[in-house]
Amino acid sequence: MELKITCIPGDGIGPEIVREARKVLDSVAKSYGHRIQYTDILMGGASIDVHGIPLTEEAVETAKAADAVLMGSIGGDTTTSPWYKLPPNLRPEAGLLAIRKALNLFANLRPAILYEELAKACPLREEISAQGFDMLIMRELTGGLYFGDRKTIEENGIRKATDTLVYDENEIRRIAIKGFDIAKKRSKKVTSVDKANVLDSSRLWRSVVEEVAKNYPDVTLEHMLVDNCAMQLVKDPAQFDVILTENMFGDILSDEASMVTGSIGMLASASLNDTKFGLYEPSHGSAPDIAGKDIANPIATVLSAAMMLRFTFDLDKEADAVEAAVKHVLKEGYRTADIMSEGCKKVSCTQMGNLLVERI
Amino acid sequence: MELKITCIPGDGIGPEIVREARKVLDSVAKSYGHRIQYTDILMGGASIDVHGIPLTEEAVETAKAADAVLMGSIGGDTTTSPWYKLPPNLRPEAGLLAIRKALNLFANLRPAILYEELAKACPLREEISAQGFDMLIMRELTGGLYFGDRKTIEENGIRKATDTLVYDENEIRRIAIKGFDIAKKRSKKVTSVDKANVLDSSRLWRSVVEEVAKNYPDVTLEHMLVDNCAMQLVKDPAQFDVILTENMFGDILSDEASMVTGSIGMLASASLNDTKFGLYEPSHGSAPDIAGKDIANPIATVLSAAMMLRFTFDLDKEADAVEAAVKHVLKEGYRTADIMSEGCKKVSCTQMGNLLVERI
Ligand SMILES: CC(C)[C@H](C(=O)O)[C@@H](O)C(=O)O
Ligand SMILES: CC(C)[C@H](C(=O)O)[C@@H](O)C(=O)O
């Protein structure tokens, strides 16, 4: 099979971790008889430095021409980097929001898994973490407060800023369908999170989700208020299978959930549209403080590449092989600095990539 | 001194816990030579049952005529209670939002403290909880998504819902001042939480908070994105002193912080306006499942009454006495069911109230 992949190395540790993920993909291609054609595009700070803007139209066109996008991470230190002296719409993150919208990537999937081998890194007590957990946050990614109208005006000398949270039923329905579809292949439970006791958009969310649920009689649906969900993630993360929620709540809850696992350097993500096309990136940020030191953890990016094999290319066996390789090196005790613990063998970013390649 | 207090027993366990808090207040009044004049009003489900609406104008007037309001909790089981068959603006929670607005209670203070005696209930690992933590969430309570325009319309047969997030600089300034004022009396650090990489309202928030900070050279200000804050609360809660944030973020983060303490039955809150007037209520909900069983924990309400003594009446000695009594009974090993642990003595709601009264 021919795989056309656009890479966004990005900023900070981005280039290092994408390099290792490509090595792993290449090794998969070789073993299973596929051919990969890579193209690189600039985004975020890397694009600002060259083009003055965080994402060019040409870059978007290149991405569109591929089957999938593999991204590292973007952004820099917000207090010291010159990128953050620019107006908001020219900063690195604006590139990320722009590509999500341009490619219509409305469904953001963020698994939050407690890896048995890394259970010690979990910030929760053993009584809570002992049973393990494996949830997936299905976050709506192209609507809500992120893309509603906004303005800052001065009225009688008083500055006033407005953002708008808008959802229509179609936007809600398509993400709900993605949520139920994936729950069907997992533990068959959807927790839809909203703030229906306050927001109109949440009340519409809730009723559309209920309509969609009717087509999935074997999937259990429960509704949870966002404030309660923020509590439950800490109290009892094992109760969750698929968490289905809107853009801003998903941003907050998925980060909370990833921290609850204790190993954010391991967490992949996929952003999908209505076709097989997707953008795949680690859940963590660009970690400018450790960039270029070859100590970053490439596993989240490698697992994002595995999600790409599975979702975009339907190459389940190949995806399984990558995930098995990750489990394998963890079992053997290899760790990058961020997940290092006593008695394990500390390896660099490059070494981790090599170990994974050997085990494909 | 003459203290005029309006009580809102409310729904669920509300009446039981308010009764115990009143006993404690009465005992303080007796010991320190004050006279308390109580009036009761209905709110939430209790008001719906009598008046058909969750808050009457007369109730608001009664509250306004007092120096402070002591509230239990409102609301019922959202799936079984008939209150939740009513339209949203007639449900119990609408009463709470209405009284916040009517009394201009823009500053919501929620301390999240890890009590040494209850450290075992903390869901975090001992390495994290061992150093303890004591933070205060200063949440803006009368603006943002909670009170902006909202509407649900049908456009070409498609339902579409809109909520609006609005802040003007005056609303931000007055809550920021409250945040810095209280930080000055605590550990002198303010963490202002926003989503300035996306929202206009957050960018205005950030610049007004920076203006206010200039008048507090001895208080350290840091900015944190809301998604990162949701992570940091789990990873390292001890880093926080005062968290200053807008209404919706404050709703989510204060609940997360309260769960991180592991003893939400202990957490008080105060909602203040620009005068000494305030509404005081426990951080927890109405727990309809255990209502009327005399097993609820009255301590959060008792500590809310202590906040009232301190903030509204400037009776610091009296507030200290209440807080000391709480510490005392915990040291002696008395626990209500929610915070019970091995080797402690389990007591009812009434017994806990009596124990506190005896120790004033
Ligand atoms: C960088 C930022 C705009 C982005 C978001 O808020 O969506 C990030 O936090 C994420 O979750 O991918
Ligand atoms: C009941 C609800 C409307 C309320 C809120 O969201 O403010 C509650 O969660 C709170 O935090 O006091």
Automatic annotation (TrEMBL), chains A, B:
<feature type="domain" description="Isopropylmalate dehydrogenase-like">
    <location>
        <begin position="4"/>
        <end position="356"/>
    </location>
</feature>
<dbReference type="InterPro" id="IPR019818">
    <property type="entry name" value="IsoCit/isopropylmalate_DH_CS"/>
</dbReference>
<keyword id="KW-0028">Amino-acid biosynthesis</keyword>
<feature type="binding site">
    <location>
        <position position="227"/>
    </location>
    <ligand>
        <name>Mg(2+)</name>
    </ligand>
</feature>
<keyword id="KW-0432">Leucine biosynthesis</keyword>
<comment type="subunit">
    <text>Homodimer.</text>
</comment>
<dbReference type="GO" id="GO:0003862">
    <property type="term" value="F:3-isopropylmalate dehydrogenase activity"/>
</dbReference>
<keyword id="KW-0963">Cytoplasm</keyword>
<dbReference type="InterPro" id="IPR004429">
    <property type="entry name" value="Isopropylmalate_DH"/>
</dbReference>
<keyword id="KW-0520">NAD</keyword>
<feature type="binding site">
    <location>
        <position position="255"/>
    </location>
    <ligand>
        <name>Mg(2+)</name>
    </ligand>
</feature>
<protein>
    <recommendedName>
        <fullName>3-isopropylmalate dehydrogenase</fullName>
        <ecNumber>1.1.1.85</ecNumber>
    </recommendedName>
</protein>
<feature type="site" description="Important for catalysis">
    <location>
        <position position="195"/>
    </location>
</feature>
<dbReference type="InterPro" id="IPR024084">
    <property type="entry name" value="IsoPropMal-DH-like_dom"/>
</dbReference>
<comment type="pathway">
    <text>Amino-acid biosynthesis; L-leucine biosynthesis; L-leucine from 3-methyl-2-oxobutanoate: step 3/4.</text>
</comment>
<comment type="function">
    <text>Catalyzes the oxidation of 3-carboxy-2-hydroxy-4-methylpentanoate (3-isopropylmalate) to 3-carboxy-4-methyl-2-oxopentanoate. The product decarboxylates to 4-methyl-2 oxopentanoate.</text>
</comment>
<dbReference type="Pfam" id="PF00180">
    <property type="entry name" value="Iso_dh"/>
</dbReference>
<feature type="binding site">
    <location>
        <begin position="285"/>
        <end position="297"/>
    </location>
    <ligand>
        <name>NAD(+)</name>
    </ligand>
</feature>
<keyword id="KW-0464">Manganese</keyword>
<feature type="binding site">
    <location>
        <position position="110"/>
    </location>
    <ligand>
        <name>substrate</name>
    </ligand>
</feature>
<comment type="similarity">
    <text>Belongs to the isocitrate and isopropylmalate dehydrogenases family. LeuB type 1 subfamily.</text>
</comment>
<feature type="binding site">
    <location>
        <position position="227"/>
    </location>
    <ligand>
        <name>substrate</name>
    </ligand>
</feature>
<feature type="binding site">
    <location>
        <position position="100"/>
    </location>
    <ligand>
        <name>substrate</name>
    </ligand>
</feature>
<keyword id="KW-0460">Magnesium</keyword>
<keyword id="KW-0479">Metal-binding</keyword>
<keyword id="KW-0560">Oxidoreductase</keyword>
<feature type="binding site">
    <location>
        <position position="251"/>
    </location>
    <ligand>
        <name>Mg(2+)</name>
    </ligand>
</feature>
<keyword id="KW-0100">Branched-chain amino acid biosynthesis</keyword>
<feature type="site" description="Important for catalysis">
    <location>
        <position position="146"/>
    </location>
</feature>
<feature type="binding site">
    <location>
        <position position="139"/>
    </location>
    <ligand>
        <name>substrate</name>
    </ligand>
</feature>
